[in-house]
């Protein structure tokens, strides 16, 4: 972690870069209050402030020119987000003010923070384990309420505590094997391998592994494409789902020449929705390009909503796990019983369509309850899979007492993988890969 010098006083803008009512600038590092005090209108109040207090005053540059009226939140050593001495400056959200304060901090000996450096320091000081640190980034990047809720559970330490409980159970199994290896010749008691304990442990790790696909769906979302012939109502449905007029709706065929995309949420799942050019034979070069792009999107889609005009039935594709066939204009002609029918004009049947979209996206995944622990990160999934594989190898060997030493190695490998999950076993390369992906200010 050569990029992160933990002896430096670091600073960063914690709020988005742009004009706003207020902005927050974070500072962390030993001596940060004394370093800033000469440029604050109430230096003694700042240096002597107890933990978790606010100090009001004015910041000025080296020449005494006032930069802004500010409120500074003070955290003393051992407290706050990083568990270091830290300050948070709340100033006016003018870009000129923000730039002036950041420039001052740089000139008086502080360093601009690297991406994720505040959270890295929180991890180093034991404020967070690695699962919680990753949850910080996941929470910041949440694009759905469900993803936010799941990330918050992990930030509160639920995943870390569960991993610790799995480790304790694994250590108990490993200890019984190690005792037999060390004292086998004494034959104090007949050794009984803990088959049930090992099988239970494998099952619980497998269950946690299986939640990754669910977590990834809520985190990354799904690509849903509206497809079909020209003038079947794709743009009308697109606007209806977005509840705004984004796509141009016209009675003339071929109005949509290129795809339009927007984000919505269905059943807690973030959706990237695409309105596409109608599929038909065309001599128009521009429309042909739009159709090529439509076909590419269909190939990449997680789900295809294929609209059919109930008043003019044309090609009807076979419904499969990636395709929902929807009959539009049901207010004019009612399709046969059992078909999914909507009216993009009146909104009739759209609720049923939304339910069907949700069902299709979740059909191959276990449905979590509100209390279920779910993982989202690929790193966590790979380490859990590694632990499960090692335990399964140990289980396969458990019938032969002569290979207890090999079983002990496999159990130890699983324990290492679980330790890497929370950061008790770590390398600089792993830490840099995790924290460098954070935004600056976190």
Helix/sheet category: alpha/beta
Query: What is the C-alpha radius of gyration, as a whole number of Å?
Result: 29 Å
Q: List the secondary-structure elements in sequence, H or E.
A: EEHHEEEHEHHHHHHEHEEHEEEHHHH
Strand order of the largest sheet: 3-4-5-2-1-6
What's the average pLDDT?
85
CATH architecture of the largest domain: 3-Layer(aba) Sandwich
Content of β-strand: 15-25%
CATH homologous superfamily assignment of the largest domain = P-loop containing nucleotide triphosphate hydrolases
Calculate the terminal CA-CA distance, rounded to whole Å. 16 Å
- Helical fraction equals 40-55%
**CATH level 3 topology of the largest domain:** Rossmann fold
User: How many distinct folded domains?
Assistant: 3
* Largest sheet data: 6 strands, mixed
Spans where pLDDT lies below 50 across 5 or more residues? none
What coarse outline follows from CA principal-axis ratios? flat
- In total, how many beta strands? 12
In DSSP terms, counting alpha (H) and pi (I) runs of 4 or more, how many helices? 15
CATH class of the largest domain: Alpha Beta
